[in-house]
Amino acid sequence: MTDRKTNKKIKRTHLVVFSICLVLITVIGVTYFLQSEQRESALAYYERQQISLNIENPKTGSNHFVVSKSDLMLLEIHKINATRRTSAGEVSELVYEGVLLRDLLAAYHVDQGDFEQVIIFAVDGYQSIVAAERLYDQDHVYLVFIEDGLPLQDRGQMGDGPYLLVILEDTFSQNWCKYVVEVTVR
Fold it and tell me: Which pLDDT value is given to residue 173?
């Protein structure tokens, strides 16, 4: 009789383990599917040299805009000198041209008090978060697209573009974000 009970317990345990595995496989599959859609979307923006601008405001709702390089060219273009420090310890002095991130937001009617942070997403999944007050402290948070007089090269050309987030006050370039495809305002 104890052998029957033991066999039933073993079968029940196997059934529970099988069910848990099935649920986990389903969750992983759905997550992968959703992430692959996000990757494809990001890649499409990257290939078209566009930026997805998402504005999430609890008072006014959410808005989505597609920003092109020609849209950015309508804003005031700044020429900045920046010191870039890579994780490999390389240091280089570069001249970039681009727009203040706050000017981009203002062009889409986002005011200083409307948000707490801006999240910048790269095509490779990297993200950088900038607090709202950092955008308005000084002129030091830029979205650039020209380096030393030439358009930023893309990943295939060993570049950082077509868009690069540059934060001048970062001593080690740790919050810079290359391959920018999305800006989300929260």
Answer: 86
Question: Do both 54 and 42 map to the same domain?
Answer: no
Same-domain pairing of 64 and 35: no
> Which structure tokens are listed for 53?
């601008």
Q: Indicate whether this model's pTM tops 0.90.
A: no
Q: How far apart are CA 31 and CA 37, in angstroms?
A: 10
Total domains, the chain: 2
Candidates 101, 99, 172; CA nearest to 132 is 101
Q: Do 178 and 101 belong together in one domain?
A: yes
Nearest to residue 81, comparing CAs of 90, 94, 99, 91? Answer: 94
Task: Name the residue with higher pLDDT: 111 or 66.
Answer: 66
Shared-domain flag, residues 37 and 109: no
pLDDT for 143 beyond 80: yes
Flag whether pLDDT at 169 surpasses 90. Answer: no
